[in-house]
Design a protein that fits this description.
Chain A: Keywords: ATP-binding, Nucleotide-binding. Chain A: InterPro entries: ABC_transporter-like_ATP-bd, LytR-like, LytTR_ABC, LytTR_DNA-bd_dom, P-loop_NTPase. The complex is a heterodimer of chains A (343) and B (245). Chain A is α+β, with helices and mostly antiparallel strands. Chain A is 33% helix and 33% strand. In chain A, helix 5 runs parallel beside helix 6. Chain A is globular. Chain B is mostly helical and 245 residues long. The longest helix of chain B has 27 residues. The chains are: A alpha+beta (343), B mainly alpha (245).
């Protein structure tokens, strides 16, 4: 069973709102799509409209879908009835979707049991989001689309969302998660894509890809080394900002990320485009306590406050308070880091 | 129209209504106003050649109920789907607008009718008066249900509903004041207030069949407002499926 998007795109007058997307998502797969709001909304409004279903741009098992009522869609701006309680809300959804489920289980899974009789208007932001996640356990469908599900969520609710995803996969679901944060996408999904005006491109994630990429980078580096016979003494990392170069002290840097083949330095919640490759920066920064936690990330271990275990295959590092950014940690690097930090 | 959906939405509406402060205030205010109107209606001032009765008993009370409860409650309930952004979910699962309208209209009508019954009991209506008045006022109540829905369509939150409702409230009572004054003009025949007042006079005098001669103008007004509501829905960009199909 798989969800097929074929030539799924939109052109308005002379402007391409959404470049045609061709994508097949198999059952038990979570696909994260990193995109800006404009592209997310363009995609979702197409999903919510009628056209794509009539023209067979969205199909399930080579059969066309009836419409968006066959899908679960979560949008961050979806509200809840403020005077109902979470329990009444779930009961209402059950009646609406014509399903009978154990409401106690849904409340327990989404950690809403203790506030089941509290009015929705008194719930916190994260509790409201957890209530929305509960809806995905009510609707009887196999395609689930979430837009920015973890944005501004607390850690507890992120874990609940992870549990909800596991539950969906257990029941043979297909999940598409839209996120503006690549780190979140990497943490949650089995496949990560980037959606922009050029269309949909896959972000390589797997360990095999990681090794291949490292081999390629090594080859490039050996060529550089052959040409460079002298040893350089290094103390600063450079980044370009407008018409000037900024030189950072290595310990100022929180983490380094590669995005669309560019190396980005994260310093005090700001991003700076570096002029050197990730591999080169890695070799320079490792003596300063940096660690390559993921193919696309190099983190300053001095800044790491928490190692979060989301599931057996999903980990992330949370940086210091006042910063609180998260950086994905590869499955293969988890054991190594554990041994390295000796916890 | 989907009866199962209407039942589900109605059940949700009832659970939600219990804690709806705005509706509670409007409901309690209406009860107080019914009592105030009744008290003033009992007072009579005699001037040389004139006997002045304050308020026209049931017609004035009914006008107050339809404006304060029927129109405002319906407007508030309808706009809340927009305000709370809950209509998005209903739209996604293809719940038709008519189902949402009917579920809310049932709740509003019941609330308004309860107040109307209370007013009729206080004013000492007989059972026959009661039955005739109930049928006679149906188009009048529907007219204000549609009006409340139009206001909700034009508003984005409950504050705007209150704001847009006031001009209607004022204009309606100005017309009512003119109709009940000593001024006589054929122009008044165009307004539902006149026909409601005439109808209730006949009900109070036991002329039950003649009452329905005064139902046509309220029915015409009801259809005019329904026409405007349908027109408004056609141009509406809300998520719920449009159309009163």
């Amino acid at each position: 069973m798989s969800l097929i998007l074929k030539g799924f795109g939109k052109v308005l007058k002379n402007k391409e709102i959404l470049a045609p997307i061709n994508l097949t998502i198999k059952v038990n797969e979570i696909v994260a799509i990193q995109a800006d709001m404009e592209h997310m909304n363009a995609f979702l409004s197409l999903v919510e409209g009628k056209r794509s279903y009539i023209t067979n741009e969205i199909m399930m098992n080579e059969q066309s879908l009836q419409g968006c009522e066959d899908l679960f869609i979560y949008r961050p701006d979806m509200g809840e009835y403020k005077r109902l309680t979470p329990e009444q809300c779930i009961q209402f959804w059950c009646d609406l979707y014509k399903v009978k489920i154990n409401i106690d289980n849904v409340l327990a899974l989404t950690e809403l049991t203790h506030i089941r009789n509290k009015k929705n208007k008194h719930l916190t932001f994260s509790e409201k989001k957890r209530l929305q996640f509960a809806r995905s356990l009510v609707q009887n469908t196999s395609i689930f689309i979430f837009q920015e599900p973890t944005y501004q969520l607390d850690l507890q609710s992120k874990q609940v969302f992870n549990r909800v995803l596991n539950e969906i996969l257990k029941n043979g679901g297909i999940v598409i998660v839209f996120t503006s944060s690549l780190e979140e996408g990497v943490r949650m999904a089995t496949k990560v894509f980037r959606l922009n005006s050029r269309g949909l491109q896959e972000v390589e994630l797997g360990d095999e890809g990681e090794k291949e990429a490292e081999v390629k980078e090594d080859e490039t580096d050996s060529l550089i080394e052959n040409d460079t016979v002298y040893q350089r003494k290094f103390e600063k990392i450079s980044a370009k900002s407008d018409d000037k170069y900024i030189l950072f002290d290595p310990l100022e840097i929180d983490f380094v990320e590669t995005r669309e083949r560019q190396t980005i330095l994260h310093v005090n919640n700001e991003e700076f485009y570096s002029t050197v490759s990730m591999k080169e920066i890695e070799s320079k920064l490792i003596p300063y306590g940096f660690y390559r936690c993921h193919r696309s990330y190099l983190v300053n271990l001095q800044r790491v406050r928490e190692v979060v275990v989301w599931s057996k295959n999903s980990y992330s590092l949370t940086l210091d308070k006042g910063n609180e950014q998260t950086v994905p940690l590869s499955k293969s690097r988890y054991g190594e880091l554990k041994a390295f930090l000796n916890w | 129209m989907n009866l199962r959906l209407i039942r589900v939405l109605l059940l949700k509406e009832i659970k939600d209504l219990i804690w709806n402060g705005q509706v509670a205030i409007l409901f309690v205010t209406s009860i107080l106003m019914i009592l105030v109107f009744f008290t003033f209606n009992q007072l009579e001032f005699n001037l040389p050649g004139h006997s002045i009765t304050m308020f026209k008993g049931i017609p004035t009370t009914l006008s107050f109920i339809v404006l304060l409860v029927t129109m405002y409650v319906q407007g508030n309930l309808m706009v809340e789907e927009k305000e709370q952004n809950t209509e998005r979910l209903l739209g996604l699962i293809k719940v038709k607008y008519i189902n949402v309208f009917i579920s809310k209209a049932i709740v509003t009508y019941i609330l308004s009718y309860l107040l109307f019954v209370l007013a009729m009991v206080i004013h000492g209506y007989s059972f026959e008066n009661f039955i005739t008045a109930s049928f006679f006022t149906i188009p009048f109540f529907l007219m204000f249900l549609f009006l409340g829905t139009i206001i909700a369509e034009a508003s984005s939150n409950t504050i705007e509903v209150s704001l847009y409702g006031w001009p209607i409230f004022i204009v309606y009572f100005v017309i009512e004041g003119l109709i009940y004054s000593s001024i006589e003009s054929r122009f008044f025949y165009l307004f539902p207030n006149y026909h409601i007042e005439r109808g209730f006079s006949l009900i109070e005098h036991g002329e039950f069949l003649a009452v329905f001669n005064y139902i046509y103008v309220p029915i015409i007004w009801m259809f005019i407002i329904l026409f405007f509501l349908k027109k408004r829905r056609k141009n509406s960009k809300t998520i719920l499926n449009s159309g009163f199909s």
